[in-house]
Design a protein that fits this description.
Helix content of chain A: 10-25%
Strand content of chain A: 25-35%
Number of domains of chain C: 1
Chains: A alpha+beta, B alpha+beta, C alpha/beta
Order of helices and strands of chain C: EHEHEHEHHHHHEEEHEHEHHHHEE
CATH class of the largest domain in chain A: Alpha Beta
Largest interface: A-B, 69 and 63 residues
Oligomer: heterotrimer
Strand order of the largest sheet of chain C: 3-2-4-7-1-8-11-10-9
Number of helices of chain C: 14
CATH class of chain C: Alpha Beta
CATH topology of the largest domain in chain A: Thiol Ester Dehydrase, Chain A
Chain lengths: ~325, ~130, ~400
């Protein structure tokens, strides 16, 4: 059976791109407005410039309510082969779209797809299956305007056997019948590495009973300053015992989040894990009177001055760490 | 574009009503019954109707352009799909800049639902030429 | 009373390089043997060892390597380069208290070819200690190198007192001028101009590359003995006229950012006041100053904190070459850590001893006492050394 699937995959792959399939309608504002309204996108640019949201690209060539079966379409052809072999269910795992330019009102779009590869059989959380990857390119005339790599898992639903008839027809691309977390990460690996490069590289504070309130605060979007439960003295960095009155009942207040730059550094060398240099790091005197160190976000180093007013912002590194940072106020 | 690696985008919470699932499915011309017919969806093993991929792609793009502004130019959206986003759940989108240059940046986006990560992805965004 | 009770009777060094090609233990043993030879003592005479908590060579490992016998005193001092002069203070304390007779202070490091302190260190920011917690208030925010932590203070100092990058540069120019005539210095025969300094690249603004000391491999050891014993030994003793440690109020390690001002080094003020009080000397009595120069701005601030000039006026004090050879107060005739080598301040102690003996390659004429300081921005220490019978009028 594996041999049959591989042979079919090779045949379909070797056939190259299927026929060009034109969209039903040209790019048009009514459909764009419907899309913006449904998605909740208030970006005024599309109406103003008469262009379509890039994520709508595939919409223009969707097959609609009554799709015609197209045996020449590579994904349809491959799906039919896998259905025959009992891998009747499908779940999409990856969709990577690249937009060469935005589509303009009135342009006519067509799409061509080809089979890139079929890998399997793989054991997944859903059951045994095959990953089918296709590439699609959208054209306006001869100009390629967007492309997409799309991957689905065609799998055998648990409980069925290899020879059981297909319990349901595989749907066309861009839909899923049995949604679930898929164990194979496929191209998602690239994303995970990128995110991990930031999160796992991050320098983390040592959090103790004395300091946990501060970090819980940043995670909740609050800049907390320790306040002595005895005399009300404010203190940062915090500690377990009040220096003024000796009380060890510590409380905190939520800072207004504003302050002035007391001093700052433009760090250019050497590298700092998780950051792209240069960065500006400032010691800020908060309105409440204590000082605190944080990165100044989005600032041109030449614009930063001692005495400049800043507002706190929070940088969420991951679920365990949120850093306080500053933004310059105009 | 003065964007620093590590910048965190404001969170976007989307109440996923049946109306939201259905209107977005129709607006993306996806008429698969699992996106508008609850009985059919349950019959097929789902607990409810759920968002379609084109909508997820659209939401990820919108989430980043909401932050980057009207002059942003989206070059690519790459997503990996995980747990389904069912009606009556809340989709929480978070993002962080993972790469930055003078011409643009890459934002890593995660969309979470009760069942886990519905979507993880990367959006490459630059400025209008 | 510590003043005048003990003396440095021997000094030893390895070569200073960028890649020693041997272990830190090896370097330590070599420097200690050289120091003992210089003193005319045998390894079996050593009954005390002191080093830095940052040193990788434990006292017992070193004792094995040099063939020392029983040890009666061993100690390690914390806070990085702030420990340098304090190792000698520990030795003098042990000797004056009668618990040890010959104590060797040592520091060995492959700082250039091994672990480089100038890099961002994950270890120090994640240590499950109070210091690790302290570091959590700036490392995760991207402030994680010594240069950057100093730059924060230097920027404020410039803002308040009007000091400029050129004022910092003059410190580097003096150090490199001195190193240029010291064959032991890495930057031997390589002086720089103020223009060179101003053209060097930014590291952490407002610090440039030439505001930062070099990185070195090497080891230094000094032998401390009681003054009576010292009188019988080979070398002119460098009597420990004063020795002090200091930590200020609201002290942090490199990031004492939460005090009222950010323009001084109060911990060094604590040291300075003790040095003058123990010795009965005043700043004007000092013939040569060996000031810890990991970063140039802190040299200016040390001159102010020790009372050589009022706060904020060091830039005027140094403007006419006062800290160069032939000036009012020659600073770091060996070239300092900017010019000779970065051995965590211990090579400065050796230079001070040579100035007392009259054997420095850049000898400053006269017989007055020599001041040495240790790492700044951290809890620190200092020494006043003088030849026997001189410079400790306080007794």
């Amino acid at each position: 059976m594996e041999g049959t699937i591989r042979a079919a995959a090779e045949r379909i792959r070797a056939a190259g791109a299927g026929p060009a399939r034109p969209g039903r309608d040209p790019v048009n504002l009514p459909m764009i407005r419907n899309w913006l309204e449904a998605i909740g996108d208030r970006n005024p640019r599309y109406e103003q410039d008469g262009v379509a949201p890039p994520a709508m690209t595939q919409v223009w060539t969707m097959r609609g309510l009554h799709p015609v079966v197209e045996p020449a379409d590579p994904l349809s052809a491959m799906s039919a082969v896998l259905d025959q072999a009992g891998f009747t269910s499908v779940v999409a795992t990856n969709c990577e779209q690249t937009y060469h330019r935005y589509l303009r009102d009135g342009e006519r779009v067509e799409v061509r797809s080809r089979l890139v590869d079929v890998r399997g059989p793989k054991r997944t959380a859903l059951g045994e299956g095959w990953f089918v990857t296709t590439d699609s390119t959208w054209y306006v005339g001869a100009e390629a305007v967007a492309s997409m790599t799309f991957r689905v898992l065609k799998f055998r639903p648990p409980g069925s056997t290899a020879t059981a008839p297909a319990s349901e027809r595989a749907p066309a691309a861009a839909s899923e019948r049995v949604p679930a977390v898929v164990s194979e990460r496929a191209s998602g690996v690239a994303f995970e590495r990128a995110a991990a490069a930031v999160a796992s590289d991050a320098l983390r504070p040592v959090v103790t009973r004395d300091t946990a309130f501060f970090w819980a605060g940043t995670a909740a979007g609050e800049l907390r300053i320790q306040r002595c439960g005895g005399c009300g003295e404010l203190r940062h960095p915090p500690g377990p015992v009040c220096r003024q009155c000796g009380a060890d009942r510590q409380d905190h207040l939520v800072a207004r989040g504003t302050g002035e730059i007391f001093s700052f550094v433009v760090h250019r060398h050497p590298p700092v894990p998780g950051r792209r240099l240069p960065i500006v790091v400032a010691l800020v005197e908060l309105t409440e009177g204590v000082r605190m160190v944080g990165e100044v976000l989005g600032a041109d180093p030449r614009q930063v001055r001692i005495g400049a007013t800043v507002q706190v912002d929070f940088v969420r590194v991951d679920t365990e760490l949120t850093l306080p940072a500053w933004r310059l106020l105009p | 574009m003065s964007v620093a690696v590590g910048i965190v985008l404001p969170e976007l919470r989307i109440p996923v009503t049946p109306t939201f699932v259905i209107s977005t499915a129709v607006a993306t011309r996806d008429f698969q019954d699992v996106h508008h017919d609850r009985d059919q969806a349950v019959r097929r093993g789902s607990k409810d109707i759920f968002l379609n991929i084109l909508t997820t792609t659209g939401l990820v793009q919108r989430y980043v352009t909401d932050w980057a502004g009207a002059t942003a130019m989206v070059h690519s959206v790459a997503i990996r799909l995980g747990a389904p986003c069912y009606a009556y759940d809340t989709l929480v989108l978070t993002g962080q800049v993972t790469q930055a240059s003078s011409t643009g940046c890459v934002v890593a986006v995660v969309g979470r639902v009760t069942g886990g990560d519905h979507v993880t992805g990367q959006v490459e965004v630059g400025r209008l030429p | 009373m510590i003043s005048g009770s003990a003396a440095i009777v021997g000094v030893g060094e390895t070569e200073f390089s960028k890649d020693s090609g041997r272990s830190e233990l090896h370097l330590a043993a070599e420097a200690v043997r050289a120091a003992l030879t210089d003193a005319g003592l045998a390894p079996t005479d050593v009954d005390g060892l002191v080093t830095f908590t940052m040193d990788s060579t434990a006292e017992v490992a070193l004792a094995r390597e040099i063939g020392a016998g029983e040890l009666r005193f061993f100690s390690q001092v914390g806070y990085g380069g702030g420990a340098a002069c304090a190792t000698v203070q520990q030795a003098a304390l042990a000797i004056s208290a009668g618990v040890a007779r010959v104590v060797v202070c040592y520091r060995a490091l492959n700082e250039r070819s091994g672990r480089r302190f100038g890099r961002v260190s994950r270890d120090v920011s994640s240590a499950p200690t109070s210091s690790g917690v302290d570091n959590g208030w700036h490392y995760p925010m991207g402030l994680g190198t010594p240069a950057a932590t100093v730059a924060m203070v230097a920027r404020r100092y410039q803002h308040v007192f009007g000091a400029t990058g050129e004022d910092f540069g003059r410190v580097a120019v003096a150090a490199r001028r001195h190193a240029a005539t010291n064959p032991r210095a890495w930057f031997f025969d390589r002086p720089i101009t103020l223009a060179d300094h101003q053209a060097s690249r930014w590291i952490a603004e407002p610090l440039r590359l030439l505001d930062c000391c070099q990185e070195s491999d090497g080891a230094v050891a000094v032998v401390v003995a009681g003054v009576e014993r010292a009188a019988d030994l080979r070398q002119t003793p460098a009597v420990i006229t004063a020795a002090a440690q200091g930590s200020g109020a609201d002290q942090y390690v490199m990031t004492s950012y939460y005090r009222d001002n950010l323009t001084g080094l109060p911990e060094l003020g604590v040291v300075g006041r003790q040095l003058w009080q123990q010795s009965g000397l005043v700043p004007d009595d000092v013939r040569v100053a060996v000031l810890y120069d990991h970063f140039t701005p802190y040299v200016l601030m040390q001159l102010e904190e020790l009372g050589f000039c009022p706060p904020g006026e060091a830039r005027h004090f140094i403007a006419d070459g006062a800290i160069e050879l032939g000036g009012r107060l020659p600073v770091n005739p060996h070239g300092g850590q900017l010019g000779e080598a970065y051995i965590h301040g211990m090579n400065g102690i050796v230079e001070a001893v040579r100035q007392v003996r009259g054997s420095s390659v850049n000898q400053v004429a006269g017989a007055g006492p020599v001041l040495v300081t240790a790492g700044t921005g951290v809890p620190t220490s200092g020494l006043l050394l003088a030849s026997s019978g001189r410079g400790w009028v306080g007794r």
